[in-house]
Amino acid sequence: MNRINKKLKEDGKLLSIYFTAGYPHLDDTVKIIGELEKNGVDMIEIGLPFSDPLADGPTIQESSTAALKNGMTTEILFEQLRDIRKTISIPLIIMGYFNPVLQYGVEAFCKKCREIGIDGLILPDLPFDVYQEEYENLFKKYGLLNTFLITPQTSDERIFQIDNASEGFIYMVSSASTTGAKQGFGSEQTNYFERIASLHLKNPQIVGFGISNTETFTEATEKAKGAIIGSAFIKHLTQNGVDSIADFIKLIRC
Amino acid sequence: MKDEINAPSSLGKRSVNSAYHANEKGYYGEFGGAFIPEMLYPNTEELRLNYIRIMEEPSFKQEFDQLLKDYVGRPTPLYFADRLSKKYGTKIYLKREDLCHTGAHKVNNTIGQILMAKKLGKNRIIAETGAGQHGVATATVCALMGIECVVYMGEIDIARQAPNVARMKMLGAEVRPALSGSRTLKDATNEAIRDWINNPVDTHYIIGSVVGPHPYPDMVARFQSVISEEIKWQLKEKEGHENPDYVVACVGGGSNAAGAYYHYLDDTNVGIIAVEAAGKGIDSGESAATSALGKVGIIHGSKTLLMQTQDGQITEPYSISAGLDYPGVGPMHAHLFRSGRGEFISITDDEAMTAGLEVSQLEGIIPAIETSHAFAIFDYKKFKKDDVVVINLSGRGDKDLQTYIDYFRL
Ligand SMILES: Cc1ncc(COP(=O)(O)O)c(C=O)c1O
């Protein structure tokens, strides 16, 4: 069974952390992953940086630009991750935009992920229908779970379609926004969380965007299985460096 | 031809099984589609489900036509360029989009889209701009309709296009600097898309060319198709037949070209010539010749040809002309290139500037530097004496005066 599915079956709420590979320094990738696992994080999204991250707010834009300046490439990331499964056992997901994957070759990319022990991909700009028509078989062939996003604007009908096509979890974007944009949740989010819970989807949901502290983590996971933190973690890395990852995780899960 | 002048615009009506127009999913051959994050899905879906229906409403057509006539100044003339024709030994007609209000073809699209936004009940407009022409055309129609307008513009472009920034401000628009990435047109487009993600309900995004996710390339092409619709009856009046031998246009994103080609795309006896900016030369590392340098990829939600690194990072193009300085090309043009339907020629900065000066002095028309590229093809493409060649004069050169002054030390 895929590590993601196993993890989703565990009791308790899951904490997933996103970071941009190649930031703050080109060679921080393995160290960051190790620190995150050591400090009890349940799942990691490794961000493959892209020059034009449409769905991201300033924090992840800046970390992506910096990572590319540092020299990060798809090839280098795969090289850094080559032996990652000798030490790391939690699920690892690569999150990025579709164009770098397309240039690497979608099949070659999937194959490499399998070799390394990557469990899934999140490619926000690979649309659901294109995935189903052109790439689903490839992802399955290499044992990769693909995760789709839903937002407060996504219709129930489309959510059910996405639920049907998913085999891991559904990424619930907390509000109509780019990453890191909103501070705290309001009644719009509460209603949305309740609406999704009432649909009784077959896949668990993990909430992302706008989660930055214990309070938002707790609110987000009241109904959902887990939550993803990205921008807040990257800000912490910028301010405190990779040696202080334990402090950040303690702040979320106290 | 009075009947044609008074007939309502077809707004791009076309035969169903065209080989060169978008299919119902927004694909031109292998290019196009909507590669967008889910956050944008409701926005583009609302447009996709409604744009053709709205365009076909008689009240929409009537308002569009009225504004194009009384406000934009259409039909724009099709002018026989006598001295230029003599010089190059062929029959050259100029489609005078430079005479449109605001000085370029861009306003055909912004008029259409502001009416579309009103029909969709939107009360806020966003746009991206590079040189500022599309920003000015958007700010203009927003002033006309009394709608709030925010234009994203790269920080670097704001510094080098000061007069257009001032025009937008005078027209009441807010100009927001795009501070991310390379701080030029592609980043301004990213910022506009991010704004739309954050404001999905009340805001319409007026994209400035035949780029972006479906249905934008098709919608913008339909609004611009008025150009070739007019060329057809104007040419019939002057030459006795609707079809020229060639239609020539410069291609940045490709909207003026899409409009000039539109009604000729399926008439394969009409040659289609697309002119791209080679910048300092195709192999110089400073170029915007997407057909020569691009590979298939995804930019701003569209699968098309784009300039990128081997690793799939989008690269920064270069051209002396800010309007051609885009790393991609609309999916229609990627398909015209791949299928061989279009002939693509790239022109350097120097060749374009020289051609711009020549047209100024032979015809008394100072073209926009974008258009000057289209006038520089005669060294690369020979025409027969009785060929009829229509060049789309997409814009006038007022906005480029400083660049011409610096280049020619005027
Ligand atoms: C006069 C003129 N021509 C051409 C262009 C290029 O755009 P497109 O290729 O969409 O026509 C521009 C863009 O700013 C322009 O101002």
From TrEMBL, chain A:
Keyword Amino-acid biosynthesis among record annotations: yes
Pathway, per record: Amino-acid biosynthesis; L-tryptophan biosynthesis; L-tryptophan from chorismate: step 5/5
UniProtKB keywords: Amino-acid biosynthesis, Aromatic amino acid biosynthesis, Lyase, Tryptophan biosynthesis
Enzymatic class: lyase
EC code: 4.2.1.20
Transmembrane segments: none
GO cellular component: cytosol
SUPFAM superfamilies linked: Ribulose-phoshate binding barrel
GO molecular function term, any single one: tryptophan synthase activity
Subunit-structure text: Tetramer of two alpha and two beta chains.
PANTHER family membership: TRYPTOPHAN SYNTHASE ALPHA CHAIN, CHLOROPLASTIC, TRYPTOPHAN SYNTHASE, ALPHA CHAIN
Function field: The alpha subunit is responsible for the aldol cleavage of indoleglycerol phosphate to indole and glyceraldehyde 3-phosphate.
Protein name listed in UniProt: Tryptophan synthase alpha chain
UniProtKB/TrEMBL annotation, chain B:
Cofactor: pyridoxal 5'-phosphate
Family per record: Belongs to the TrpB family.
Function noted in UniProt: The beta subunit is responsible for the synthesis of L-tryptophan from indole and L-serine.
Keyword Heme: no
Reaction equations catalysed: (1S,2R)-1-C-(indol-3-yl)glycerol 3-phosphate + L-serine = D-glyceraldehyde 3-phosphate + L-tryptophan + H2O
CC per GO annotation: cytoplasm
PANTHER family cross-referenced by the UniProt entry: TRYPTOPHAN SYNTHASE, TRYPTOPHAN SYNTHASE-RELATED
GO molecular function per UniProt: tryptophan synthase activity
NCBIfam families, per the entry: trpB
The protein's Enzyme Commission number: 4.2.1.20
Protein name (database record): Tryptophan synthase beta chain
Subunit annotation: Tetramer of two alpha and two beta chains.
N6-(pyridoxal phosphate)lysine: residues bearing it: K106
Sequence ranges assigned to domain Tryptophan synthase beta chain-like PALP in this UniProt record: 73-395
Organism annotation: Ulvibacterium marinum
Keywords on record: Amino-acid biosynthesis, Aromatic amino acid biosynthesis, Lyase, Pyridoxal phosphate, Tryptophan biosynthesis
Pathway named in the protein's UniProt entry: Amino-acid biosynthesis; L-tryptophan biosynthesis; L-tryptophan from chorismate: step 5/5
